[in-house]
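quick q for whoever's on today - can somebody do inverse folding on this one?? i tried earlier but teh output was garbage lol. tokens:
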């Protein structure tokens, strides 16, 4: 059994998709990010960055010892689960393919994901009188990353070739919500086709529907929720015990 700490966001969908694709049993630990559950000391032991998704694997593979294994950061979780199950990643012995997998996981983690997240912030949550510059800046960066993905898909069906992999699972959720972010896939037909094929996968549909009624949908914004939008290092300090 795997404990799955989750909220229905693009980053949460990544791991939900992987768990559903692999058919792994998991216990959903639905998190209320708007009330600050991510800063609870017990969760910080699992995810020091106070971010979901995170997992705790109570039946880890050989080599991890007998204790449950916590994993935080979506790419690290996907890689861990692919290694555990032996699916959706190249053979470790194929060093060139593993190098390329690392490149595309890091690309998503360091470029596509952060740019899309900032675009989402300025489109959906920033104060109305402060969003224009940020929105234009990150829309441009989001489009640039769509161009990177469009070029990669020029001679292949999926990011790693003809096989669907964790690189696709990692990159799909932010492309899936391009339109709500104020972007368009009209200039990126290969990305649109790739997105459409992945969207049709039953495991992907189950993951996107997971706790769908708990999505933020603009209810919590910068001007009404300091917990998720104005964080500082103080948020990570251990709470003082009550007298």
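ok took a stab at it. sequence:
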């Amino acid at each position: 059994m795997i404990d799955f700490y989750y909220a229905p966001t693009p980053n949460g969908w990544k791991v939900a998709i992987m768990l559903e694709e692999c058919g792994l049993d998991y216990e959903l630990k639905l998190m209320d990010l708007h009330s600050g559950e991510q800063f609870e000391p017990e969760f910080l032991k699992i995810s020091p960055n106070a971010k979901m998704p995170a997992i705790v694997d109570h039946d880890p593979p050989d080599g991890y010892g007998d204790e449950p294994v916590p994993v935080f950061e979506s790419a690290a979780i996907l890689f861990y689960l692919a290694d555990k199950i032996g699916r959706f990643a190249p053979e470790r012995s194929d060093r060139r393919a593993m190098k390329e997998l690392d490149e595309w996981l890091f690309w998503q983690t360091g470029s596509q994901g952060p740019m899309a997240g900032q675009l989402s912030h300025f489109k959906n949550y920033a104060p109305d009188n402060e969003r224009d510059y940020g929105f234009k800046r990150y829309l441009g960066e989001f489009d640039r990353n769509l161009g990177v993905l469009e070029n990669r898909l020029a001679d292949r069906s999926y990011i790693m070739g003809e096989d669907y992999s964790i690189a696709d699972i990692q990159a799909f959720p932010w492309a899936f919500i391009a339109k709500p972010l104020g972007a368009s896939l009209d200039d990126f037909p290969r990305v649109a086709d790739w997105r459409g094929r992945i969207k049709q996968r039953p495991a992907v549909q189950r993951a996107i529907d997971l706790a769908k009624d708990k999505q933020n949908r603009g209810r919590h914004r910068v001007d009404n929720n300091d917990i998720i939008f104005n964080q500082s290092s103080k948020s990570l300090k251990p709470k003082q015990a009550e007298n």
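fwiw The beta strands are 2-6, 26-30, 54-57, 69-72. also DSSP finds nine helices and four strands in the chain. so keep that in mind when u check it
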